[in-house]
Amino acid sequence: MKILNLYSGIGGNRKLWGDQHEITAVEYDKDIAAIYKDFFPNDEVLVEDAHEYLLNNYKDYDFIWSSPPCPTHSQIRYNIGFKANRKYKKVKAVYPDLTLYQEIILLQYWFDGKYVIENTIPYYEPLIAGRKMAKHIWWTNIHCSDIEIKSRGHRGGTVESLSKLKGFDLSGYKIKDKRKILRNCVEPEIGLHFLKEVNNEKQLNIFKEV
Question: Total domain count for the chain?
Answer without folding.
Answer: 1
